[in-house]
Amino acid sequence: MHKFIAIVGTNSDQSTNRKLLQFMQKHFADQAAIELVEIKDLPMFNKPENKQVPAAATAIAEKIDQADGVIISTPEYDHSAPAVLMNALEWLSFHIHPFVDKPVMIIGASYGSLGTSRAQAHLRQILDSPELRARIMPSSEFLLGHSLQAFDEDGNLIDAQKLAKLTGLFTDFQTFVDITAELNHANEANRQEVQNVNWDKL
Amino acid sequence: MKLVGIAGSVADKSYNRLLLKFIATHFSDTVDVEILDIQDVPMFNQSDDQTNSDAVQYLSHKIQQADGVIIATPEHNHTITAALKSVIEWLSFSIHPLSGKPVMIVGASYYDQGSSRAQLNLRQILESPGVDAVVMPGNEFLLGEVKDAFDDQHNLKDPRTVGFLKETLEKFVKFVKVINTMNGPVEDDSWKSEDLEAHGKVETTIEGVDMHAADWVEQAAAKTHAAEGDDTVKLDRGVLTVNQLNYFLNSMPMELTYADANNQFIYYNHNADAKDMMAARTPAQAGNPMADCHPKRAIPHVQQVIHMLRTGKTDLFKLPVPGNGPEKYIMHYYQAMHDAKGEYKGINEFVLDILPIVKYYLAHTGQVLAKDPNAKADAISGASAKSADAKPDSVSGASADAEPEQPDEVSAASADPEPVKPEVDSVSGASSNDN
Ligand SMILES: Cc1cc2nc3c(=O)[nH]c(=O)nc-3n(C[C@H](O)[C@H](O)[C@H](O)COP(=O)(O)O)c2cc1C
Ligand SMILES: Cc1cc2nc3c(=O)[nH]c(=O)nc-3n(C[C@H](O)[C@H](O)[C@H](O)COP(=O)(O)O)c2cc1C
């Protein structure tokens, strides 16, 4: 069974993105072990000169290292990913590189009708940058609009069509994880390259 | 033109901050740039609204009062920093100070692409409906390979880069004017809302005491159980008794007046009789609404000046007040006061004769005053000569200007071809009290 880390892309107490991940955790329990990870305790990234990465960040990095893949659920703030999620990714690319070649599935929930389409594109661009180099599942998007009305009292996704889409994408993601594991010939080179992306030396 | 600059970094060292500082100092002839700090802004959290924190309020006030904003962005992981994004989120959550505000984006990065992707992202973020800023199109100032870009003096080395930056900035100045003209009412008469009768109140207003009473000070002190004599007060930074505070303020080499945010004249440093003062005040006037201290015809001008200070069009309004003979050069300064959040708290008016200072300087540096052969006739004749036939609107025209480029010019007789009118100076002045 696959082991996944699910990053809640917000520090908000009442988050529909957290709800979505909790739902997946429960709903897909027979297919995969999903562990939710919170990012709200990370300090503001300030590019410390002593290169000290906070323990909260290395702990997340370790979990990602050991997982088969990462699911990130992002809200949308100002047509982009929230600062708190960007902050986590800054720490997770600062002298540590847990995302290199890691399969990632991006999903998102928002109150409006567009369901984080722009935040997801933004997140894709970030994860694709040279010091993150994640393997983002291509041509897939799970957009949950009107997220405040999307769940019933037990935290289940109400809309059957949305659920079918999510189930399909999650199955695809598992396949994507397996295929990605095969595409491992450049792993070493990629890891080496990312180590070499040393901003101090540029 | 008043601009604020924000560097999108909370690192101890930031090339983007350096770039902003360079813009602020190198182009100070073109624009007045104040650099705002974002170090104390907490991480945005939708479930913990800290819009009212000092750090967020300070940014909001400064941005609202500025004509435009320059943002210098680093690039992290092909986007802007979380620190900058967090600031923008606070400024698009329950307040929207960037709405309609002209913004220019610049950026520096270590890499040769020079923050191009971060800039593109930032543009998209700033134009989203919650932020609603107006980003200058087209121009991109990208400073790549930034580690080699500055010399030891923190100046940009490459003259072509400086040239391009200058061009971009000049375009931005035009852009700001166009956008603000489009946004603002053509005839800005918002100054008329200044109530010199002080009918309103602020949190410090002492209610139930007649502002017009000659013994307002005694009544107000009794009402509030005010500290006096040997009572101590804690100040930023020190502890004094009220007596000590009085010795201190009364020995200042200038006349000080406090007009609060409700346009009430609540204090002056009473160390001389009215007849010996440069701007006469009497003990009975303390507590008066500002309207009491001015002749009717001066009221609109006073309203305009106060409004400029309240809205941050300028923080310091100054003007020379003629009519004291050649042995004195009396200046009236009106300094806006703010709390830590940048909220307007009133006016510190200080009046002093600067001629002794000029004379001291000349004597001790072995110099003499000489006429400037290039000066305009008006500068030499001074305001005093012309003030008699000045039209009532001459100064107000300048002070009410929706966009006073150089506040100094409004008041300084030297630079202003329009003669300066004496009554404007009496924002809190009692000199015309006899009306
Ligand atoms: C500062 C701010 C900006 C926002 N901007 C957007 C936006 O651009 N697009 C959008 O669909 N929703 C926007 N929203 C509302 C979000 O849909 C909503 O807060 C979030 O995505 C829901 O995620 P959550 O339930 O996990 O907190 C914004 C909310 C905040 C607080
Ligand atoms: C986590 C991290 C990611 C970075 N990613 C990029 C990048 O994607 N592109 C880039 O040009 N520079 C990148 N840099 C280096 C930046 O150029 C540099 O930190 C910044 O833009 C310089 O501005 P500053 O001195 O104002 O911080 C990165 C630096 C860090 C610490």
Query: Ends of chain B: how far apart?
Result: 37 Å
Strand content of chain B: 15-25%
Radius of gyration of chain A: 17 Å
Q: Could you tell me the number of beta strands of chain B?
A: 13
Q: Could you explain the architecture of this structure?
A:
The complex is a heterodimer of chains A (202) and B (435). With 202 residues, chain A is of the alpha/beta class. In chain A, 38% of the residues lie in helices and 15% in strands. Chain A is built from six helices and six strands, in the order E-H-E-H-E-H-E-H-E-E-H-H. In chain A, strands 1, 2, 3, 4, 5 and 6 form a six-stranded parallel β-sheet that branches. In chain A, helix 4 (117-127) links the parallel strand 4 (103-109) and strand 5. Chain A is globular. By secondary structure, chain B is an alpha/beta fold. Chain B has twelve helices and 13 strands. Chain B has helices at 15-26, 54-65, 82-90, 116-126, 159-183, 216-224, 242-250, 299-310, 355-365, 377-387, 394-399, 407-411; strands at residues 2-7, 32-36, 68-73, 102-108, 134-135, 141-143, 232-235, 238-241, 255-260, 265-268, 316-321, 330-338, 344-353. In chain B, strands 1, 2, 3, 4, 5 and 6 form a six-stranded parallel β-sheet that branches. In chain B, strands 10-9-13-12-11 form a five-stranded antiparallel β-sheet. In chain B, strand 12 and strand 13 (344-353) form a beta hairpin. Chain B is globular. Residues 380-435 of chain B have low confidence and may be disordered. Classes of the chains: A alpha/beta (202), B alpha/beta (435). Chains A and B meet through helix 3 and helix 4 of A and helix 3 and helix 4 of B.
